[in-house]
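Before going further, learn to read the protein records used in this course. Taken together, the tokens spell out the fold as the letters spell out the chain. A record is reproduced here so that you can trace the correspondence yourselves:

***
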Amino acid sequence: MPDFDSSVFKLAPVAMWIEDFSAVKALFDDWRSEGVADLCAHLKADMSRVAACSSRIKVVGVNDKTLELFEADDFNHLVQNLSMVFRGDMLESHINELAALWDGETGFSSKAVNYSLSGRRMDIQLNATVMPGHEDDLSRIMMTTEDVTEREEARRQEARSRLHAEGLFKHSPISLWVEDFSQIKILLDDVRHRGIDDFRVFLDVHPEFVHQCMSEIRVLDVNQATLDLFSAPDFHTLLQRQVEIFRDEMEKPFREQLVDLWEGRIVHSREVINYALDGTVRHILLHFAVTPGYEHDWSRVQIALADITARKKAEAYLEYLGKHDVLTKLHNRAFYTDELNRLERKRLRPVSVLIIDLNGLKEANDSLGHDAGDSLLRRFGEVLNSVVTSPVCAARIGGDEFAVLMPGAENKAAEAMVDTIYELMAINNQFYSNSPLSVAIGVATSRDGESMEATVKRADKAMYEDKQAFHKGLTDGRSRPGGSKSSPAKNKISA
């Protein structure tokens, strides 16, 4: 055993080793004589050289704590089984230790992996010091080995958790943003310190405050789903072109977001409209939350953007279906009824009404099939859609029956509408000479004190009169009765 105070060494509460590196020093001298200058490069070029150094180290003594840590019965038991203690990736960490001694340093520290004699893996913090008087031959080096497995495992777990969180962030299918709202909090606090109680009124008086807050948002990070959502090639491009993303309709929801923050709602959601860099609209469900632990300054906030564009399109289409006829693209009977009721409630007058019946639909369905009948309906729908503009509306109110409502239109405007319909039908028929469009039209303009229902009935009656004239051969349903646009068409125009 070594000539030192054995009681201090033996009873030390940390695992201690006394090792003889003199044979390693001799090997160093041989390599220097061979011209080796960079020991690290020399060892890494051939890892067997590291093993050669390791095999020349002689363990002179260990204390009781070492025997306990490595589960050895005694010194001889430990020494005879050193190959079980030092194995695996030990050689890699050994290179830096050898390099320190090569460079003349009298101490070194490193982290390594050792194993107890039962096979238990241990993360080791190793500290070594060349004992005084042995600097020339390295025959006495004192080492301490501390089991830091628990600490290192905690670090590894932290690293795994961090990587997991980063992975969830980077690869989430939902657009995720990390932003800094600290300047916005400062601005809001300043307003509050000025004695402002009603924040909404303050924003009404100072709309520029909303723009100021928007300009103070710092984007710290986004994930790949964000770049994909907004058609951005990279993070830098996204930052440079944010004004193209957050524009137009964005100001109003951001104003409401400021109100939420003012009132202490640091977690909230709302629907917004953004734009991709290619100009396409993105309907977004925005989830905002101040990151836990950052409530004091809002320097970290998390924003998740769910793309609900498809849902909004579906909702819009369902809304469209609720008000429109799919075949003709005109309004449907439900919308027509609602519009009649609205005109009645509002007492909007005058109102002109056109009731139109498509001639020959049944015959086309019976002789040529329903596809031919549908084609007639679609074509006439195209005609009406091309002549009506708001507030005028056209609707398919039955199988072959249509209506046009003209709020604010006198009888003269209604007659002009009829003329236009016939003119467009004539153009359309030029392309479908084998199946020309033919209609019966009745028109009525509201009278003083007359209900909308009564006006519609008069228009409907006039349409049936025109229908009878068609069947009697007095009109072909493709032009005004009498064959001239200037003819009075008394059976169709009822004032």
In short: Confidence is low (pLDDT under 50) at residues 481-495.
